[in-house]
Write a structure and sequence with these properties.
homodimer; alpha/beta; Isopropylmalate Dehydrogenase; 11-stranded mixed β-sheet; globular
């Protein structure tokens, strides 16, 4: 498989991106290749400075850069020779199998909307993140920030996407999907979660186990996948990250707290779109980039598009929404 | 001041309640007294078994109990001689200055609505909790669970209440009030927080410092009071509690993680009502009860009703809402 990487979008571009790509090579599966999008001369310079052979990569030379200050949608249209736009074009044309970028999230989403687009039937793509279970496994939380205002059917579709991703990428045979809520009973919650619980409790598309409270999240006793709206998910994600930082600062060094480190996965897959896309932090370190590439490889292997299409083939959108 | 305690509502009643009341006596301010509501014989038995003199307390004998399985509103009306109903009656009549109960939260709220009632002008009372700042101070988060669905004006009023409580009970002279959100910029968030930000940015009633993300919460660099809806607040509160439990389980023993322990305060003040009411966990230990009584004493000292009325005297409700 061919894994595309935008080397120009991050805060330390292209250095950290190229260093991450160099570091990941020995860990990739047989047959996996990396395609770097960016300024060829700068990419070669980073390789040269670090004793790496640039011939290990396919390089697609681009002349423009979309940075954090660019207006997402405008930048994508007005910088057609940016590394990001070139990456999405290659992804859309099937020349790469997945695309990762530590860049402007809004521009990455614009890139998706202008090129590969959401899977037909998916109302709103979402982003997910892995969280650690205290026994060492990973759970999946989604949406962690794309859709701050959700309807019950968005949460329902997040549950489908999360369940399929946990099967394909986290090797969960029959993932237990729970709804993040403020009480266990079906009657608890806000208007959104009450309606979503009602919809989910009648599903045939995933293994719904009911509501989960945030204090049960990390025990893993109840769920493998936790669904929420992007506002709540983003609050939870950033709070978990802050506990990692506090623990580190206080010299606490346990597997669980270390697994809260964002760099462990390096990026969040965008789910519900027609090709694997992974978005990382702008400030990504080489380690984060390395892990983002591994996450991309895993996400490509999850064959999400086929899995989602299989579900949607069996059911009309109306079935899935009601 | 007279501090009322419902000794019958908790999971281990009245033992833990009475033990907590015995333990707190040496720490109370001069002039503070405890009034225990519950079965007098059982209360005296706990005192006797633990070598404490029951004469240190005023005891109001009651014959009924509202437990966790009771329907909140019905229980309050149908069990007029319950310890909880008697406590609220005493509070409403001014015979005690504040009332604390580790009981059925819904019934406690019903008690408020039937007796002391919300302060005129307050659309929705809310509950708050203290969270630790890494330098050892406390911040205040509200609402942590009473109103799962909020309008911008509810968040605005939470901000007023939180600011006044931080002044009165946490000794913050000019508390910095922030809105919990998923981005720093005014344009970030969901429909609710965007509208609330707009309303708050024009306030004269509190020191609004803008949005805060959850990863900045525990640093204390930006805010002393953080405002959110009860759904998000409850998720944050329970997640923080779970980090306390995980850290304890992993043998991590730092001030910060210990301060995440619910028992540190023992209960959450209900803000926006006509007298101090503190709600604790049903499973409260004697230590939690002891601290809940101290929190009640502090809340009585905060003179919230006067402070809120002062603000509402100066402004019509329309001013405050717009």
């Amino acid at each position: 498989m061919k894994i595309g990487l935008d080397t120009m979008g991050g805060d330390f571009a292209p250095k950290n991106e190229v260093l991450g790509a160099i570091a990941v090579l020995p860990e990739l599966q047989k047959g996996s290749e990396i395609v770097l999008f960016g300024d060829e001369e700068q990419i070669r310079a980073v390789c040269r400075d670090n004793g790496a052979d640039a011939a290990q990569f396919q390089i697609v030379h681009t002349t423009e850069v979309i940075d954090m200050n660019d207006h997402p949608a405008k930048a994508f249209l007005h910088k057609p020779d940016s590394s990001m736009a070139a990456g999405f074009k290659a992804l859309s044309a099937g020349m790469i199998d997945g695309f990762a970028g530590p860049g402007n999230t809004g521009a990455m989403m614009a890139g998706i909307m202008y090129t590969i687009k959401p899977i037909t039937g998916i109302l709103r793509p979402c982003i997910s993140c892995c969280y650690p279970i205290i026994d060492g496994k990973w759970g999946l939380l989604l949406d962690v920030g794309l859709n701050a205002d959700c309807k019950p059917e968005n949460l329902y579709q997040n549950a489908i996407l999360g369940s399929l991703y946990a099967k394909g990428a986290l090797n969960e045979e029959n993932p237990r999907v729970a709804l993040l809520n403020i009480g266990e009973e079906a009657s608890k919650g806000n208007l959104l979660t009450k309606a979503a619980h009602d919809m989910m409790s009648r599903t045939k598309h995933f293994n719904f186990v009911g509501n989960i409270e945030s204090n049960e999240m990390f025990t893993g006793k109840k769920a493998d996948v936790i669904v929420c709206d992007g506002f709540v998910g983003n609050i939870v994600l950033k709070m978990a990250e802050s506990f990692y930082r506090i623990a580190t600062r206080q010299g606490l060094n346990t597997d669980f707290f270390n697994m809260l480190d964002y760099e462990y996965h390096g990026g969040t897959p965008v789910l519900g779109v027609n090709a694997p896309v992974i978005i990382g932090h702008g400030r990504s370190s080489p380690k984060a980039i390395k892990n983002m590439i591994l996450t991309t490889e895993k996400t490509i292997g999850a064959k999400m598009v086929d899995r989602v299409n299989n579900i949607f083939k069996e059911a009309t959108l109306r079935d899935i929404e009601s």
